[in-house]
Structures are given as C-alpha cells and as structure tokens.
Amino acid sequence: MNHDAVRRRLSAHLEGGLSVRAAARLEAHLDACPACREERDALDHTVHLLRSLASEEPPEDLAAKIFARLEAGEGRPVAWARWSAWWNGAWTAPLATGMAGLALLLLVQTVEIEVGWPGATPAPRALAAAAVPDGTASSKAPTLVARGPAPVAAPERRAADFEAGASLRTQCLRQPGAAACAAWHSWLLGLAVDEPRAFVMEVDAVPDAARTRWLVDLSRFAAHSGSAPRVAERLRATRDPRAQRLAPHFEQVSVR
Amino acid sequence: MAFVTQPLLEQPQPLSADFERPTPTVDPDLELVDRWRDGDAAAFEQLVKRHERRIFGLLMRMLGNRQEAEDAAQDTFLNLHRHGHRFRREARFSTFVYRVAVNAALNRRRSLGRRRSHMDALGLEQSVGEAIPQGPVSPEAATAGNEIRLRVQREILALPKNLRAPVILYDLEGLAYSEIAEVLQVAEGTVKSRIHRGRRVLRERLADLVKRGEGMS
User: Fold this and answer.
1) Burial class (CB in 10 A: 0-12, 13-18, 19+), A154
2) Chain A contacts in chain B segment 151-190 (CB below 8 A)
3) Within an 8 Å CB–CB cutoff, is residue B199 touching chain A?
4) Which of A32, A42, A121, B57 is most deeply packed, by most CB within 10 A?
5) A223 with A252: CB under 8 angstroms?
6) Among candidates B153, B107, B108, which has minimal Cα distance to B126?
C-alpha cells in the first residue's frame, strides 16, 4: 500500500470503516511510515477540533415566532398558497368577484360542450362555472362529475380555478346546503380524479371544526353523482397517507 | 444563546466513542406526523419544539450568523409545513427536516450573495463574544478558546459548499452516511468522499491549531 492510498483511506480508517484486512494493511504501513502516521494524527486532531464545538442554543422565542407566522397564514400548503396569493394581491375582492362572474358566464358554453364529450372529465373551470355568481347553482352541476375514465391529459388548472373554488368554498361553508356547494363539490371531485394530491390540499384548507361533517356531505354528493368509486380509486392510487385516509369516505358511502 | 465552553485542546478520545450515530429503528416522529396530517396543529407544534434546537444548531454552522440562522430556521419550519405532504416515510422524518433546513440555508446564502462575507464576520464574532462559560475559566483560557472556536467556525464556513454540508452533518451533527446521502440527494460513496476531502482541507487550514493540540497531548 503506497502513501497516497493510505492517506485516501485514513478518514475511513479513523471511523472504523475499513475491512479487517484493509485496516491491518494500513496499520502495517503506518507502523513503518512516520509521515503517514503524522498525517493520521493531524487528521485525528482536526476531527476532534470540529467535534469539540458545542452547539448553540436557539432563541427562546423561535417556536413562538414560527407559530405566529403560521397563524398569519404563511406556510399553507402549496395549492392554498397559489390562489390565496392571487386573491390577496392587487385585485380587490369586488373586482375579483366581478371578473370571476364574467369568466363564469363566458364558460357556460364550455360546460355545454364538455357535457357532450363521452367519457371525459370536465374541465374544472367548467365545473366551477356551474354556479352563477349570485349563488344559484346550475341544475347540471351534479351531473358534471366524471363518470368515465379521465382524459389522457388532465386539464390544466390555473390560479383562477383555485380562486373560484375558494369563493365557492366560502359560500358553502358559511351556508351548508347552499347552491354553491353543488358547484364546489363538483369541482372538487373533478380535481380528485385529475390531481388527487391537490384535492387533498384543498381538503386541508377546510377548517378543522367543519371538516368531518363536510366530508360526509361531499362523499354523499359523490355517491349521488356516481363518481365516488373513481375518486376512491384515484386516492388509493397515490402513496400519500392523507389521500389513503380520505379514500374510505368515498368507498363506504352509499346513496341515501 | 451561548457556545458552551469546552476545552478544545484536550487529549482526544477514540473517534468511535464520540458520537452515537442514529441506528435504523422505529421513527419516533411518525405518530406526531400522522396526527399533524390528520389536522392536529398541536402535533406540528410538538415537532417544531422537538427539532428546533438541532435545526438551529445546523443552520448556525452553515450560515455563521445568529440572525440569519434564526430566519432560516423559521423558513425551514414554514417550508416543512407547506411541503410536509412530500414526506414519504422512506427515511426518518428528522432526515426530511434536515433536508428542508439545508435547502433553506443554501437558498439564503445564494440570495445574500456578496453581503455574506461581511455579515459572516460580524455575526460570528458576535456569537462567539457572547459565549457564556459553563464553569470557572481564566480570562486567558476563555480568550484562547474563543479564538480557536472562531477559527474553526470560519474555516468550516470557508469550505466549498459541496464539502461544507457533508462535514457539518457528519462531524458536527452526527448523522450517518446514509442519512446524509438522503439529505443531500447524492450517493453514499459521494458523501464519504466529500467528508474525507473536507477534513483534509480543514486539516491543512487548521495546521497551526492541530500542531498546538498535538503538542499538548
């Protein structure tokens, strides 16, 4: 074993990371080579210098600052962040509502077209558009949920889709059973089929206190629309444990 | 808020006795992670409190400045909350947290750019100057100990970034090779090689301190 080979292995040797045979050969070289012994001792001391540096204590209020930022709305899951950033940005709420209403009216045509597409999952924009801005839902909303296989390419969702979904969610949670719920549930079920992980994050955005009861409503809606098995299947197909825990809601529900 | 004063030039002990590296057992965080994913905010708070000390310590090593380390620690836990769904249980949760923290540190250093060198100097001296000895230490010894710590910290910060994180994670944080590979998303062999190269660089740059230490042993 030459000097270079010994010095390349010194670090591993100090950690006891060499095989018995390799360690024995290296030790034999060290016994006969003062320069390599000196190198070993120097490396040994360097590592001890590093390891003798004690850790520094964090500020006492570090955790409190983190929790305060979380309460202020930072650190929300990505889907929430995407549309809430838009919502809280330059647009004022009334202007945003007006724009959303205009977009929804324009997309009614899309709804009609996509309903006629056999086996297709309707675009979420169209699903969200099933509710008109004044809160009255289109009678077609529940029937818009996917009944066949998802299209090969899932429709692209934009910030505006999530913004529209959030608006419907606010209305629905404020008044369970409101017409907006049908459109929101339709959109959510389409999302579950196309992007189950984004669906999970939307579920996370529902306040804890309301989530359990609301999930019952959503799963019944899915059963009525016939999409529950497909939603359950898509959730099961992910490896996300949260999706796995949501799946039974759609597997065990029956139309009542 | 203090570096714990320890004799830096004492007789070295065998390396194998220094650290108890984590062994692959049941992940103690999983129960809290499950509760957090079920919507239990208190579980996330417990996870923060459980990991904040180690994460802050790691970030101090990587950034060398107390204020930046605190900011990066906040970023780490906010990012963890935001991207927690990406934790796949293929590694320990603590490894996942380390990974988020290392990314936060690298992003912070990148964004600070050239301001760093000046801030490093100010922040590091401030931290070391605020050290509170754990026992009676003579003024001369305290000064010498602080100087040594300052030198070692500076040389760690001066390491190339691809060597710095592996050395910190292995020699200062006590992670296993496999965990560091997971944190840095590189092969285990690469981790070993970088640790060895990093140590050799430090050995050369700290040669005078090493000689003093050898003289005392």
Assistant:
1) middle
2) 152-153, 156, 167, 171-172
3) yes
4) A121
5) no
6) B153
Check pLDDT > 60 for residue A50.
Answer: yes
Instruction: Give the ranges where chain B is alpha helix by DSSP (H).
Output: 30-37, 41-63, 66-83, 93-112, 115-129, 139-158, 161-167, 177-184, 188-205, 207-216
CA distance B7 to A52: 8
Residues A29, B38: contact at Cβ < 8 Å?
no
Q: Is B37 near chain A, with CB under 8 Å?
A: yes
Query: What residues form DSSP beta bridges with B3?
Result: A56
% of chain A surpassing 70 pLDDT: 66
Does B133 reach chain A within 8 Å, measured CB to CB? Answer: no
Q: Does B28 touch chain A (CB under 8 A)?
A: no
Select the residue from A38, A41, A51 to test the B interface by mutation, using most B Cβ atoms within 10 A: A51
Which CATH number do you get for residue B198?
1.10.1740.10
| B87–chain A nearest CA distance, Å | 9
Half-sphere exposure (CA, 13 Å, Cβ side) for A73? 7
Residue B73's domain comprises 25-216
Q: Which of B7, B15, B172 is opposite residue A15, by nearest beta carbon?
A: B15
**Residue of B19, B21, B67, B77 to mutate for A, most A C-beta atoms under 10 A:** B77
Asked if B145 and B8 touch (Cβ cutoff 8 Å), the reply is yes
CB A147 within 8 A of CB A68: no
Tell me, yes or no, whether B107 lies in a domain: yes
Tokens 């959730």 locate to A235
Cβ-defined contact of B207 to A45 (cutoff 8 Å): no
According to DSSP, the residues that pair with A137 across neighbouring strands are A131
* Tens of pLDDT, residues A23-48: 899 989 999 999 989 888 888 888 88
Higher pLDDT: A119 or A160? It is A160
Measured N-to-C along each axis, helices A196-204 and A241-251 cross at an angle, to the nearest 10 degrees, of 90
Domain membership flag for residue B60: yes
